[in-house]
Specification:
Radius of gyration: 31 Å
Mean pLDDT: 88
Strand content: 35-45%
Order of helices and strands: HEEEEEEEEEEEEEEEHEEEEEE
CATH architecture of the largest domain: Sandwich
Structural class: mainly beta
Distance between the termini: 91 Å
Helix content: under 10%
Number of helices: 2
Largest sheet: 9 strands, antiparallel
Number of strands: 21
CATH superfamily of the largest domain: hypothetical protein (bacova_03559)
C-alpha cells in the first residue's frame, strides 16, 4: 500500500512538470493583440505628470503613452483617440495637440500621445487634467481605454545672493520711533536653506528693527520662492509674521526689485533690494 502511494505521487509530479515550458525557452504573448492607455493601468486610472517650468518658453512632449500587447508588431499599429470634454486642461493654453492618432512603430510596443505641454502657462500649485479615450485602432481596443492624465509644474530656485537695500516710507507699530527723512539703508545676504526654494534673510525688517527700534535684525521668517512667486513664511523673534502688500517691480536691468511689506505688529515699508551680482528672474512676483 505504501509503495502504491509513492507511485501515485511520482505520476502526479510528472504530469505537473510536463505542463511547463522547457527551462530557458521564451514565453511569448499568445492572446489577441490589443492596445490600452498606460495611465489606465493604475488602480485609479489616473497618473500624475510634472514638468519643469523654466519661464523661457520651453515646452515638453507629454510622456503619456499607449501600450500595445502583442506577440508581434511587424508592420506598426495606428491608434485613434479623443480628448474627453471633462478635461480641465485647455488646448492652446495648457497643451497643444498635433493630431488625434498615434502610430506605434513596427518592432515597438509603446506610442506617445502627440500632446505638447505648455509649462510656462501653468502656475505653481495648479493641476489640470487631460482625459483621453481610445476610440479605435488597427487591433482591439482593450478595456483600459480611458484614463486621466494630471499635469502640474515644478520649478528650480536659485536666489541665494548678497544684496543692498533701501527702505522708504518705513513705519513702526505702537511705540516705535517713526521714520526718517532719507530712508533706511543697509546690506545683507539671502541664504538658501536645506529646503528647496526657501531662504533666510539677514534682516527681514530691512532696517526697521535696527534703525527705528534700536533692536537686533528681524529673524525667523523665511523667504519662499515657488516658481518665481515670493512670499514669507514663519514668525520673527516676537511672533509676528510678514507679508508682501504690493506687487514686485523689477528694474529694467534686472538687478533690483521694489516692493512694499508689513508685519502683523504694524512695521513695514517700501524696500528696494539690489543684488551685488546677477539679476532677479524676469517673472519675479508676489502674487498680488
Amino acid at each position: 500500500m505504501k509503495h502504491l502511494k509513492y507511485i501515485t505521487l511520482f505520476s502526479t509530479l510528472f504530469l505537473l512538470t510536463s505542463c511547463f515550458d522547457d527551462p530557458g525557452t521564451d514565453i511569448l504573448w499568445e492572446g489577441g493583440s490589443f492596445v490600452e492607455l498606460d495611465a489606465a493601468t493604475t488602480v485609479s486610472g489616473v497618473r500624475d505628470y510634472s514638468y519643469l517650468r523654466l519661464n523661457d518658453g520651453t515646452t515638453y512632449s507629454s510622456g503619456m503613452n499607449i501600450l500595445l500587447a502583442s506577440a508581434d508588431n511587424s508592420s506598426g499599429v495606428v491608434v485613434n483617440f479623443e480628448i474627453d470634454p471633462s478635461s480641465t486642461a485647455i488646448e492652446g493654453i495648457h497643451y497643444s495637440s498635433s493630431g488625434n492618432s498615434v502610430t506605434i512603430a513596427a518592432g515597438t510596443f509603446v506610442g506617445e500621445l502627440p500632446l505638447t505641454i505648455l509649462a510656462d502657462n501653468i502656475n505653481a500649485g495648479e493641476s489640470f487634467s487631460i482625459v483621453v479615450n481610445l476610440t479605435s485602432a488597427d487591433v482591439v481596443v482593450g478595456e483600459r481605454s480611458s484614463a486621466t492624465h494630471n499635469i502640474a509644474i515644478s520649478c528650480t530656485s536659485d536666489l541665494a545672493a548678497d544684496y543692498t537695500f533701501t527702505t522708504n516710507s518705513a513705519m513702526t507699530g505702537p511705540g516705535g520711533a517713526g521714520c526718517c527723512t532719507n530712508g533706511l539703508n543697509g546690506s545683507g545676504t539671502i541664504t538658501a536653506t536645506p529646503t528647496s526654494g526657501t531662504y533666510t534673510l539677514t534682516d527681514v525688517s530691512f532696517g526697521v528693527f535696527p534703525d527705528l527700534w534700536s533692536d537686533s535684525p528681524a529673524s525667523g521668517p523665511l523667504l519662499v520662492d515657488v516658481c518665481d512667486q515670493l512670499s514669507f513664511s514663519g514668525a520673527d523673534q516676537y511672533g509676528d509674521s510678514y507679508s508682501f502688500t504690493s506687487a514686485i517691480s523689477r528694474s529694467a536691468d534686472g538687478s533690483s526689485i521694489t516692493f512694499s511689506w508689513a508685519n502683523t505688529y504694524g512695521d513695514g515699508g517700501t524696500t528696494t533690494l539690489t543684488l551685488t551680482d546677477g539679476t532677479w528672474p524676469e517673472s519675479i512676483n508676489s502674487g498680488i
